[in-house]
Amino acid sequence: MPEKVGPYSPFVEAGDLVFISGQVGIENGALVEGGLENELKQALANLSSVLHAAEITKEQIVKTTVFMTDMDNYARINEIYLSYFDGRKPARSAVAVKDLPLGAIVEIEAIAHK
Predict the structure, then answer these.
(1) What is the pLDDT of residues 26-83, one digit of tens each?
(2) Which of 34, 37, 39, 67 could form a cystine bridge with 25, CB 3.0-4.6 A?
(3) Other residues' Cβ atoms within 10 Å of the Cβ of residue 80
(4) d(CA 40, CA 82)
(5) Please, what is the Cα angle at 85 between 82 and 68, to 5 degrees?
(6) Which phi and psi angles does 66 have, rounded to 5°?
């Protein structure tokens, strides 16, 4: 499981739903270097780790929320996001925010169905 950067659970089950906390591109306690692409790929790898711990797969994700600090990154985020989901498109919100934990550029949270 990826390191936590605050007082929260990586995931919480509620009936048939699994709520996955926001994941940033953290590895070994720090943001990965290399900018947006590396951060998002690591955030998605961290998401996969949490899914594994919850004993579910990315195919069971029904909704995501993507938080980004710069809407100019929207198109590149979409490319990487779609490659992670193999072209499958869960429901999604994409929101520009002022700041993210640890100075991250992007964060992704998800809801899955068991």
Answers:
(1) 999 999 999 999 999 999 999 999 999 999 999 999 999 999 999 999 999 999 999 9
(2) 39
(3) 17
(4) 12
(5) 55
(6) -110, 125
Beta carbons within 8 Å of 10's beta carbon, 6+ residues apart: 1, 2, 4, 20, 21, 50, 53
Instruction: Give the alpha-carbon dihedral of 38, 35, 73, 75, to 10 degrees.
Output: -40
**4 domain-assigned:** no
User: Is residue 20 one of the residues assigned to a domain?
Assistant: yes
CATH number, domain with residue 58: 3.30.1330.40
Q: How crowded is residue 53: how many other Cβ atoms within 10 Å of its Cβ? A: 13
Q: What is the residue range of 25's domain? A: 11-113
Domain assignment present for residue 37? The answer is: yes
CB contact set of 3 (below 8 Å; sequence gap of 6+):
26, 28, 29
Closest to 68 measured CA to CA, from 39, 104, 96: 96
Residue 2, pLDDT > 90, answer no
